[in-house]
Amino acid sequence: MDDDGARPARHRIRVTGTVQGVGFRPFVYREAAALGLSGVVGNDARGVLIEAQGPSAALQELARRVRDQPPPLARVVDVRVEALDLEAGAVGFVITASRSGGPATSPVGVDTAACAACLAEVDDPDDRRHRYPFTNCTDCGPRYTIVRSVPYDRPATTMAGFTMCATCQREYDDPGDRRFHAQPNACPTCGPQLTWRRPDGAARAEGESALDAAAAALRSGAVVAVKGVGGYHLAVDAGDAAAVADLRRRKARDDKPFAVMAVDLVGARALGHLDAAAEAALTDPRRPIVLVPRRDDAPVADGVAPGLPEVGLLLPYSPLHHLLLGEVGRPLVMTSGNRSDEPIAHDDDDAVARLGPLVDGLLTHDRPIHIRCDDSVGRSTATGVRLLRRSRGFAPEPLSLPRRAPRPVLAVGAELKSTVAVAWDDTVVASHHIGDLEHLAAHRSFLQAIDHLLGLYDVTPEVVAHDLHPEYLSTKLALDLDLPLLGVQHHHAHVASCLVEHGRTEPVLGLAFDGTGYGPDGTLWGGEYLVADLERSRRVGHLRTLPLPGGAGAIREPWRVAAAWRHAAGLAPEPPPSVDPGLADGVGRLVAAGQGPTTSSMGRLFDALGSLVTGRVRATYEAQAAIELEALARSVERSGTPGPGSGEARPAERAGAWSGTTDVRWEGAAEGGDPAPDAAVGPAALSSGPRREEVAVLDPGALVGRVVEEMAAGSAPSEVAARAHQALGDGVAALAVELAGRHGLGTVVLTGGVFQNAVLSQIVGDALRASGLEVLEHHRVPCNDGGISIGQAAIAAAST
Q: Under a CB-based contact definition with an 8 Å cutoff, are residues 685 and 744 in contact?
């Protein structure tokens, strides 16, 4: 060490990011001790604060290790070093008690799966935690779902009611132990315990006997509620067709797919075709559900995912799941513990009230869950795993705002797949998945999520960003708050959410395709080409508009949308034979008269095509006809090789394309462009001021006619589905290339729930990239309405 490096100094090191509840203070303690430094480390409302004294070179090395080699679960955002005066008599290094006060800006850690070391203890007959379902350490276990406030210490969590035994306390106090300052630390002597309950809540067995009872019930075909990390699951033997059917009947969930938990990765490989990205996601500590192509010989009942070629897989992420799957020895359906579309149950009394009538028993425990957090969901695609639902394991991990927020923002999201978000400075934090706000229970959860986020981060919002739709419950809540409001157009928020994910601010061409979004003109948008940045957007193209016969009824009954599109293509409605003739006549009259709310929705077009090809009359879950149409398209193999996204089929060559089945016409925009708040401003593509400009209209009428013709001729539905995807994707991409050129843009964003469709995404993305355009797609932020609050927050940050 040179003379300068040996010179004594004292530094204050401020660390921000996800650095609480992840073993950061023990890590700093060990590193400082190894470097021969004295001083202190502690949590406060902003993160971790270190004051260390010793040789200058050792202090610099400590700062480097903190920044570059943090604990596995930590996410360091910033390390700032400040020189202090030397302190006389400083000896040793200690961890201090957490300090309260000041704004709470330190991110709360996410819930993570049990680590290998903890599972080894659970499986070791000689270990004191053998078969203990709540084993954890500083590198794993619950965080977000148990924390009540920050700084993150045991008294601020739902573990506050469990006093550590002497042995656990020694682990907690020992700097050399893996559980040094592990806040949820517990063991069979002092920690939470399992209970097996009857449907009415009466306790029937405790501890190991409770686990045995639940496993026996599952092996016998029973429906069991299992209390996990973020809430309850409803579980059955995934290979038992009768049990799966019984669960569907009890939960009133006719067709929507169930997730399946495999014992381990080997078991998952027996259920689905896994590529490297899917395997990495399944084994990641975040443990999402991953949608993958199902194996033909998978030992799961057809009723798990009726009519679909994919299965949603996940691996055990808590010691309780690990033990239960091991005892049953079979894959288990693990679906959200709720009735269809309600929030997941997480409170024990609520679980007995809501789930008791649905199950044969409840495997529960006495560690409270403070905030419910459903499983995250991803999908394996050709470009990697994309998040469709960002919840447990990902929320509330912060994202960086591309444009700093000058004042704190609350963004209340949309109506479906609801999330809320708070933003301040250069940070946005989105909540867990809440659900559809049309349900009262979800609305309560929505309010709880807002209070929880604002409380955790000590944020007092000064502006509330909301959707333009006046009937959304989230909009009505925003209007009830005594705060300045910023209405954000739905599809602009979609584009902005993708810009946040990629850290971009420049104008782009955004393709925002979804089911429904309120347009500034009062119509229902959903097939939009927008020139947009984080501040403004302008509509430069859209799907052909048509009226929805029966309004919301057309969403539930896609044959109605099919009738409207047939009419638009110059064909008679011809409803399916199973439709009541009186209803069919009524819808026919609505279609002929052009009555119903006007929409440019690409999601509704896919519903119509799905109904025409599959015969789907009524959807039992959102976008069912469209999802079944995509499933058919993916079943068309190219040269016998599984195609896009891990084993599925890309329809391009073998299916062939129908050239000329989409048309583009140009219509003049109204003087002044779109109404505020989407007035056009900014650089060339977003120049301000009154304007008259042509807007492109993509018309797939001929494509609809071709689908009808092919189905009438007896063509294979899978071939028709594949060709329809290819023709529509080609038309979508061709118009995007034209618009990007007209507006001098080199980047295209693909966003909105329709781009959950892997076939369409690949066709459009490949065509755009082949034309020399950069394509931004979603991976970490959902492209569906689960990302709307993030986009709203970013727009509010850039606009205030």
A: yes
Q: Where are the alpha helices (DSSP H) in 314-470?
A: 319-328, 348-355, 440-456
DSSP letter for each residue of 152-180: --GGGBTTTT-PPPHHHHHHHH-TTSTTT
C-alpha distances in angstroms, 248 versus 82, 173, 228, 254? 60, 49, 21, 6
* 58-69 average pLDDT score: 96
d(CA 14, CA 78): 8
**Max CA separation in the chain (angstroms):** 95
d(CA 216, CA 220): 6
**What's the CA gap between 786 and 433, in Å, rounded?**
7
| CA–CA separation, 343 and 155 (whole Å) | 27
**Integer Rg of the chain from CA:** 28
Which amino acid is residue 469, in one-letter code?
Answer: H
Mean of pLDDT values over 343-350: 94
Output phi, psi for 423, to 5 deg. Answer: -140, 140
* pLDDT, averaged across the chain: 91
Tokens coding 518: 């309120």
d(CA 621, CA 302): 17
Sign of the CA dihedral with 618 first, then 620, 621, and 627 last: negative
Task: Please state the length of the chain.
Answer: 800
Residues 6+ apart with CB under 8 A from 651: 633, 636, 638, 643, 721, 722, 723, 725, 726, 759
| Minimum mean pLDDT range among 174-183, 446-455, 703-712 | 174-183
pLDDT bin (cut points 50, 70, 90) of residue 692 is low
Residue carrying the six token digits 């798990």: 304
Kindly report, residue by residue over 353-395, the tens digit of the pLDDT. Answer: 999 999 999 999 999 999 999 999 999 998 899 999 999 999 9
Asked which of 117-121, 321-325, 475-479 is least confident by mean pLDDT, the reply is 475-479
In 725-764 the beta strands, taken as DSSP E runs, fall at 747-751
Angstrom distance (rounded) from CA 716 to CA 614 = 11
Nearest to 775 by CA among 743, 741, 750: 750
Task: Answer yes or no: are the C-beta atoms of 25 and 41 closer than 8 Å.
Answer: yes
SS3 state of residue 109:
coil
Strand duo 259-261 + 310-314: pairing: parallel
Share of the chain above pLDDT 90, in %: 81
User: Which range has the worst mean pLDDT, 132-136, 231-235, 665-669?
Assistant: 665-669
Pairing of strands 485-488, 310-314: unpaired
Residues 6+ apart with CB under 8 A from 627: 308, 610
Q: Are 463 and 486 in contact (CB under 8 A)?
A: yes
CA distance 613 to 628: 9
Phi, psi (5° rounding) for residue 194? -80, 150
CA-CA-CA-CA torsion sign (311, 314, 315, 320): negative
DSSP per residue over 228-249, as a string?
Answer: -SSSEEEEEETT-HHHHHHHHH
> Residue 685 corresponds to which amino acid?
A
Contact 790, 781 (CB under 8 A): yes
Q: What are phi and psi of 302, to 5 degrees?
A: -60, -30
